[in-house]
Every structure is written in C-alpha cells, then in structure tokens.
Amino acid sequence: MYSWYAAANVCYVWLHDVDDTHPSESGPASFSRSVWFTRGWTLQELLAPRYVVFLSKKWHTLGTKQTLAHRITRVTGIDEDVLLKMVDLHEVSVARRMSWAAMRRTTREEDRAYSLMGIFDVNMPTIYGEGSKAFLRLQVEILKQCPDQSIFAWGRPSIDYHTLINNFSSVMVTKELRDSNHRSLLAPSPAEFEHAGSISPIPLDGLSELLEEPHLVPPESFPIVNIPSLGRDPGILMAILACQDAEGNLIVLFLNQRRYRDDHSTIV
Q: Which residues form the DUF8212 domain (predicted)?
C-alpha cells in the first residue's frame, strides 16, 4: 500500500471530525486533534505521497501537506523536511521513525507492525492472529537490511556511556535490570520508542574514536563490557550502541547474563 500512495499524483484526506475553519485560524481544537493523526495506517498515508490535500468534514479544502507542514510537524513530531520530501525517509534513524508510530493505534494488534512495513521498506507475510509477534518479526526484517543500532534504543530514557563510567553505581544498574521483565533486545511494541526520537546512528569507526578504545568495537556488532554485579545477581554486561542522542551522548544497554546448569549462558 505504501508504494501505491507514493506513486499517486495526489492523495485526498477527508477529516470527518474537522470543521471548515482553516487550521491556521482554528487553533489546535479541530485539525490538530483529528483522530486521523492517531491511527496506525494513516502514518504511511501522510509520509508516502508527495502531494496530500486535507478536506474538512464538509469536503472543503483545508490545505495541503505543503501549506500545513508546520502544523503537522507540531502534531506528529515528523520533521518538515521529511514531510516535504526534502530528506529521504531512509536517512532517518530507525528509532525516530518508530517514535512517529509510538502513540498511534490500530484495531488489530498485528497492524501496528504491518502498517510500518512500507515505512521501513520491508516485506513479510501478514499473519493475523499472531498478535505481538508481528512487531518482533518486523524488527528482525529491519535488522536484515539495516545496520542502524538505534532499533535497540527503546524503553526508558537511555543512559550515556561516559556518564555511567564516571559515576558508576552497581545499585542503580541492578535496579534497572530488576525493573524490566522483558527478555529480548527487541521492543514488544512501537510504544516503547516514544522517547527515542532523538536517537541517531553513528558509524562503527566513529564509535571507536568516541570510545578511544578501538579494540572494543567488533565489526558489524557492538562492544560489550563486563560489569561486576552485587551479591547473588548474575553478571551484568554493558552494550555500547553505535548511536547517540541529540546532545551527542553515546547510548548503552544493560544486559543480564544468565547461566544455566549445563554452563551455557544467554544474554537477555
């Protein structure tokens, strides 16, 4: 569907809950609060076409994506340059694209993932009934073709590597792990990316320079540093992602290494 919208000469958006007052005059009450901006499938309807015309509930023209770009950016968080096709969608980090969908809703849980396939240029079978597994499959497909590690920077606000090293607290680290019951590097839903919009990837060689320890950065991966844990807690690992926030801070993840009876270990 994304390709259909992208190939269209013009797309019309009928906003059934918006009156005829021009958005620049009506304030946020009507246009900005339209349910259209909260639905999952409408994100691709906004991003894919070059030319979009918005219509009121009485089918009167409110404006276009170009004339209303500033207002749409305020409502959705999507950069004007992206809306106006001045920046290619593939130049935007995975985390930022996910953040645009974080607060959107769909009738079927699976559609939260399926509605994003075109935005990430991936294809996968639609299997209604799989529930949250659809979003996990989507992330796997993204990883197959995109080395952007910001896909792992979801959840609570990220922790800066240098701040952590200079002010390390084992109590804080173990509490972070105990507070999370999720056992995967992949997010359970787009909602987890709500606060990840400022995360952007950096090249691995750039990560080496920032760490000043090039031997830590394996090719096509991320460096993992062992951290001593407290008491009977299992070993804690710190993964340093090749991405940073808007202030240039490196992002780290805490990983819990669990050891089983056969001496094999897994990282969660």
A: 133-219
Domain ranges of the chain: 2-83, 159-267
Q: Rounded to the nearest 5°, which phi and psi values hold at 95?
A: -60, -40
- As a whole number of Å, the CA-based R_g of the chain is 21
Check: pTM over 0.90? Answer yes or no: no
Secondary structure class of 147 (helix, strand, coil): coil
Report DSSP state, residue 156: S
CB atoms inside a 10 Å sphere around CB 74: 12
98, 193 contact by CB (below 8 A):
yes
- For β-strands 52-55 and 11-14, DSSP reports them as parallel
- The pLDDT-based confidence of 147 (bands split at 50, 70, 90) is confident
**Element housing 224 (H / E):** strand 224-227
pLDDT digits over 178-191, tens only? Answer: 455 556 789 999 99
CB contact at 8 A, 236 and 173: yes
